[in-house]
Amino acid sequence: MEEKLNKVALWLKKTFGDQPIPPYEADARTVDILYELAECNESRDGDVMLLIDDMKQKTEEYESDGNYLQGLLTESLNLSLTSLSNASTSYLNTLVDSAVALETKDTSLASFIPAINDLTSDLYAAESKNKELEHELTSLRKKLTSALVLEKRLEDDLKKTEELLAVEKAKADSRTQNMKFLKDKSEDFKCRIKAAEEQLSASGMDASLTHESLVSLSEKLAELKKQAAPLKKKLASYLDLTPSPSLARVKIEEAKRELVGAIS
Asked: 239-244 contacts: CB < 8 A, separation 24 or more?
């Protein structure tokens, strides 16, 4: 803890210089945070110093190469930068700019050709990647179009379904109202019939003439007619014959007794 606190104090003094250091709480958490910041700052400063040293070394190398080339031109061709024409100076600047753009160590063909090949390969790779992206974009556009068409179709179907449900709901409400009306009418008719029967019963009307009695008698009559139908057919078959009068009379009496028995 004390070692971290000392390092933090030295780092803050170095950072703020002659300016006063802002007050801070010297607790464990604050010291840990400031210690990490100090470590990061020192690491960054070390990286910056390495980068500066590397740039200085490259600058010295470039200056050495430039002096060497300038001496070579002066000794071999008796040329100097001041004796070059504007066009030659322009060409030389272009050559230098190209070397800088291609990040070559010098302006020789041995450096330019691999750099151009690498740049060409990067260009082909970028074009290939661009074609892939265009293909993916086209595919995504088609999918998006299909999705939008499907969404529109679903919206139309949903709208039609909602309209149909509204119509069916209106019909159901109407049927419900009609059922309620009929139910109320049925209850009203039952009350009226009951009141009328009570009134008729009070006036001395036979109970067999009530609605329930009449309905029951009608059902019994329909059942008797159903039972008598085969007997009538049987009797009709005897009536179509031409037997002796005595035998026919006996058969007719038997059929009548069966009919009377069925009715009673």
From this structure: none
Residue entry with tokens 């600058």: 59
Match 């230098």 to its residue by tokens. 96
Q: Are 258 and 231 in contact (CB under 8 A)?
A: yes
Are 234 and 262 in contact by the 8 Å Cβ rule? The answer is: no
**What is the sign of the dihedral through the CA atoms of 69, 71, 75 and 79?**
positive
Q: By CB neighbour count within 10 A (0-12 exposed, 13-18 middle, 19+ buried), where does 197 fall?
A: middle
For residue range 80-128, list pLDDT tens digits in order: 556 666 777 787 778 777 877 777 777 777 888 888 888 889 889 999 9
Asked whether 70 and 80 are in contact (CB, 8 A), the reply is yes
Q: Write the pLDDT tens digit of every residue in 217-253.
A: 788 888 888 877 777 776 666 666 555 566 667 767 7
Q: Do residues 211 and 197 touch, judged by C-beta distance below 8 A? A: yes
Share of the chain above pLDDT 70, in %: 79
**What number of residues does the chain have?**
264
21-30: long-range contacts at Cβ-Cβ below 8 A with a sequence spacing of 24 or more? 28/1
Q: Which two tokens stand for residue 181?
A: 């009306």
> Quick check: 159 pLDDT over 80?
yes
| CA 52 – CA 1 distance, rounded (Å) | 34
pTM for the predicted model, two decimal places: 0.33
Residue 260: closest CA among 236, 224, 223, 220: 224
Tokens 């009548």 -> residue: 256
For 154, half-sphere exposure in the C-beta direction (CA atoms, 13 angstrom radius) is 6
